[in-house]
Amino acid sequence: MTTIATVGVLGGGLMGSGIAQVAALNGFTTIVREVDEPSAQRARSSIEKSLGKAIEKGKLTEEARAATMSRLTFTTVVADLAFADIVVEAIIEDLELKNEIWKELNALCPAHTIFASNTSSLTIAAMAAVSGRGDRMVGLHFFNPVPVMKLVEVVKTVTTSEETFSRAFDFAKRLKKEPIAAKDNSGFVVNLLLVPYLLDAINALEHGVASVEDIDKGMMLGTGYPMGPFTLLDFVGLDTTYKIAEIMFDEYREKRYAPPPLLKRMVLAGYYGKKSKRGFYDYSVEPPVVSALGL
Ligand code: CAA
Ligand code: NAD
Fold this sequence. Notes:
By secondary structure, this protein is of the alpha/beta class. It has helices at 14-25, 37-56, 62-70, 95-108, 125-131, 162-174, 190-206, 212-223, 229-236, 238-252, 261-268, and strands at 6-10, 29-33, 72-75, 86-89, 114-117, 137-142, 151-156, 178-183, 281-282, 289-290.
């Protein structure tokens, strides 16, 4: 059994940059592939910023930061991931795009390389089938923000071998995460329960139950959640949430997963949440204020 030493990360957005940071911090040689130079640079800066904050808080030494950065490479060339022992995919939630890149990588990577997807809502089976290595395909679902959230869902589909599953589970532990085993159903454990809650909050807002601020306050002070649902939606990304809801609705054909019309309108308007500086809140001012949504 080849020991995992080199990690390839596909996509350096919110999740990919966090996964790469955690991998490099825990001693893995890590290569991040983005679509173009500016995106690769953004991935690098977001990791630098996150490590910088950790230093300010006295949680990381200068030496550890330098060692982490020295283990990280950023590239736009898929073939640079050919030497990875595991590739963790964190590109946008689009099955066709994900499968295109798995097919390309299958021709480049050695036989022992594990393919792991960080998908929120697609089944691993839908990728395993076309990846050309169904026995070495697994789900590794991290949570946002990756450097802080302890959980990783490790997902075995019908074709995943026991060896692949146990190597992926062990890899999550080596990242100092708490892995749990989850079945290959759309949404795994956490999103199966979390996504309907987030969509219900949008429906409640559209039906005039209460304001954005009061629904957020209600869930934080009434249930002890660290963020209210609208702050969390903005944090996850409304574009990503919309895609997740579409995929889960398509899978289960249940109303509880249907993307609310307001969510669709906001995505069409380019309101993607914190990453585009506007979602349910407007982040162009400090502190953020509630966005005018024409309700
Ligand atoms: N990167 C690195 N560290 C970060 C960070 C980031 N992006 N954001 C916050 N932190 C760290 C802070 O440095 C701080 O560390 P220390 O305690 O060591 O000082 C710690 O996290 C707490 O941060 P803050 O005090 O600034 O803020 P907070 O107390 O409000 O916590 C939070 C921030 C951890 C994000 C908290 O609000 C939280 O847990 N929110 C809910 C997050 C959540 O539900 N995530 C899951 C989303 S769903 C998902 O990921 C699945 C999917 O498929 C969509
Ligand atoms: P994001 O939009 O922040 O980042 C996606 C990145 O992928 C972008 O930087 C984009 O340039 C890049 N990309 C697109 N096509 C690519 C390709 N062919 N090769 C390399 N890079 C490519 O999205 P995100 O929030 O990081 O989500 C990524 C994945 O993680 C999705 O599958 C999502 O469902 C899942 N996820 C998201 C969250 C969350 O809270 N946002 C949590 C867990 C899992």
